[in-house]
């Protein structure tokens, strides 16, 4: 038992790391322009600050050989080593600095002077740094002239022979300083942008597959619908995926049949099914419509009710033209229920599917969903059909779906792959279960496919009517006709 628990924990940890990496890469694809701008911006800022505040430093340098009077080569090496060691003390003692300042006519040495012995030789390197090129050169010449005489009281009499002299110095450090500032700015910008991407990935973690769906929710997964591409809208052309008119995508049709079979096992004698999602754009209306079609093709009498009064879309999925009475008209007693039901046909042949459309575009009477009239309407629909499917608004951000919870027998929750944040999905399901809704399972919708010359299905570039995200209705197929072979494969 303990080994099994440990193995499961390791698998979950592995899954979480893999998921986090996937979310990070996805965030990087979304925010690459931010990464580029932030990196270039901080690089430019660092370059600007360096070039505007840079103070040049001129370095004069000379290498001399130290020779003791009547000394051997070994003595010369010892002299040079000793002169390198005592130089700071000679300079700070004032003996050498007074001579240099007197020659320059200054109160102090306007620069920094260093001396170092080249190990194993009698060579001594003297370096002078100053903000003025002339001062740097004059200080160096003064040191070369006066240091042997000043140091003779410590090391004895010596003389310098110049081996290499840099002459009047130029500002050789500017290029390296500017180049270093560019590298530093680019590095800081890149690291900072990666932190932003990581925070985005942690904040916008989504669900990609069934394993992550099960790890996030303690709810059965009814199946996964594959992603499908579709052309952008054309006037008068049905644009939503509809397996009644288009059964060419066998993978989608078979996935829907599997979901239907699992859902039927979960529902048993239950009749009213609510289909909802976390946020707008997860394809719940498309899933609800095609689930209703799949059940009708099996021989059941199915009624699909568009309860999304804020954004009714079932009529568009079935390509209904012109004005028609809808759910709101029935609830307001403006029309009889039977007159509002639209029979869905295929080539003028009955399919066993009826649609009760939503409100017109001006209706916003969402409170009516919780009324006694709604309860009586659903009771009447139960008597007329084997299955009643309610397409409702998102449950994580709107209260509309909660108004219908007490009237339904089961809830199917649609989750778009790599779309809604995990916490939205969790909160949406938790809100339903807390309200007493019988959530029988989740359906993982395929999400967006790779781009084609037509773009992504359902991504039309308009702002969602709910005030978040963009319109994104999930999956699609090419418009076509259902074949006889598809009926034969129905189970």
Could you give a short description of this structure?
With 491 residues, the protein is α/β, with parallel strands linked by helices. The chain contains 16 helices and twelve strands. The chain folds into three domains: 15-51 and 174-203, no CATH class; 58-165, Alpha-Beta Plaits (2-Layer Sandwich); 210-488, Rossmann fold, CATH 3.40.50.300.
The run of helices and strands is: HHEHHEEHEHHEHEHEHHHEEHEHEHEH
Backbone CA Rg:
41 Å
Mean pLDDT: 79
Helix and strand composition category: alpha/beta
N→C terminal distance: 40 Å
Uncertain ranges: 7-15, 231-237, 448-491
Strand content: 15-25%
Number of strands: 12
Tell me, what is the CATH class of the largest domain?
Answer: Alpha Beta
Number of helices: 16
Q: Explain this structure to me?
A:
- By secondary structure, the chain is an alpha/beta fold.
- The chain has three domains: 15-51 and 174-203, no CATH class; 58-165, Alpha-Beta Plaits (2-Layer Sandwich), CATH 3.30.70; 210-488, P-loop containing nucleotide triphosphate hydrolases (Rossmann fold).
- Helix content is 45%, strand content 16%.
- The protein has helices spanning 2-30, 32-53, 73-93, 95-104, 133-155, 174-203, 210-216, 250-267, 284-297, 314-317, 327-331, 337-340, 372-384, 400-404, 422-434, 484-488; strands at 58-68, 112-117, 123-130, 158-165, 221-225, 272-277, 302-306, 342-346, 349-356, 387-391, 410-416, 439-445.
- A hairpin with a 5-residue loop joins strand 2 (112-117) and strand 3.
- The model is unreliable at 7-15, 231-237 and 448-491 (pLDDT under 50).
């Amino acid at each position: 038992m303990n080994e099994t628990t440990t193995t499961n924990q390791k698998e979950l940890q592995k899954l979480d790391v893999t998921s986090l990496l996937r979310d990070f890469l996805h965030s990087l694809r979304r925010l690459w322009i931010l990464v580029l701008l932030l990196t270039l911006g901080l690089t430019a800022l660092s370059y600007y600050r360096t070039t505007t505040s840079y103070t040049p430093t001129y370095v004069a340098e000379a290498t001399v050989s130290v020779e003791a009077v009547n000394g051997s080569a070994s003595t010369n090496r010892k002299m040079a080593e000793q002169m390198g060691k005592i130089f700071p003390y000679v300079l700070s003692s004032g003996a050498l600095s007074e001579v240099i300042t007197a020659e320059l006519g200054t109160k102090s040495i306007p620069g920094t002077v260093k001396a170092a012995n080249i190990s194993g030789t009698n060579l001594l390197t003297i370096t002078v740094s100053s903000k003025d090129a002339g001062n740097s050169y004059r200080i160096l010449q003064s040191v070369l002239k006066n240091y042997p005489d000043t140091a003779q009281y410590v090391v004895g009499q010596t003389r310098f022979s110049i081996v290499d002299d840099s002459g009047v110095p130029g500002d050789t450090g500017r290029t390296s300083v500017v180049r270093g500032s560019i590298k530093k700015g680019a590095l800081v910008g890149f690291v900072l942008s990666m932190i932003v991407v990581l925070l985005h990935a942690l904040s916008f973690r989504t669900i990609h597959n069934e394993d992550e769906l099960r790890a996030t929710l303690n709810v059965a997964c009814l199946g996964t619908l594959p992603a499908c591409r579709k052309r952008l809208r054309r006037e008068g052309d049905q644009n939503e995926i509809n397996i009644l008119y288009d059964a060419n995508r066998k993978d989608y049709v078979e996935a829907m049949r599997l979901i239907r079979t699992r859902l039927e096992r979960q529902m048993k004698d239950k009749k009213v099914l609510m289909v909802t999602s976390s946020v707008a754009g997860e394809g719940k209306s498309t899933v609800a419509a095609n689930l209703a079609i799949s059940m009708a093709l099996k021989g059941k009498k199915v009624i699909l009710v568009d309860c999304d009064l804020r954004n009714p879309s079932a009529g568009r999925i079935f390509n209904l033209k012109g004005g028609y009475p809808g759910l709101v008209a029935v609830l307001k007693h403006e029309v009889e229920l039977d007159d509002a039901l639209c029979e869905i046909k295929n080539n003028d042949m009955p399919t066993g599917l009826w649609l009760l459309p939503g409100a017109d575009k001006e209706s916003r009477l969402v409170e009516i969903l919780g009324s006694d009239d709604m309860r009586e309407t659903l009771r009447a629909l139960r008597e007329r059909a084997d299955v009643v499917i309610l397409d409702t608004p998102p449950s994580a951000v709107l209260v509309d779906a909660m108004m219908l919870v007490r009237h339904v027998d089961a809830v199917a929750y649609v989750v778009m792959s790599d779309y809604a944040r995990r916490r939205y999905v969790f909160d949406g399901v938790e809100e339903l279960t807390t309200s007493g809704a019988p959530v029988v399972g989740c359906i993982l919708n395929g999400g967006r496919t790779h781009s084609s010359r037509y773009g992504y299905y359902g991504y039309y570039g308009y702002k969602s009517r709910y005030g978040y995200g963009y319109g994104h209705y999930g999956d699609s197929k090419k418009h076509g006709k259902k074949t006889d072979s598809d009926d034969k494969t129905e189970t």
